[in-house]
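Thread: "does anyone have the structure for this chain?"

Original post by V.I.:
We have the sequence but no experimental structure in hand. Need at least a predicted one for the grant figures.
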Amino acid sequence: MTTADMAMKEDPAYNKVSRNFLENPDHFADTFARAWLSFT
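Reply from O.Q.:
Generated one for you, tokens below.
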């Protein structure tokens, strides 16, 4: 596991976000798409 993986698993704030995306894949897809568009 990378440091980022460990942070998402162990840090309470990151874990909350990770679990939210896990439980709501449509929300993850929408959030990812919006972030991707902002970078391009």
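V.I.: this helps a lot. The longest helix spans residues 25-39.
O.Q.: and The mean pLDDT is 95.
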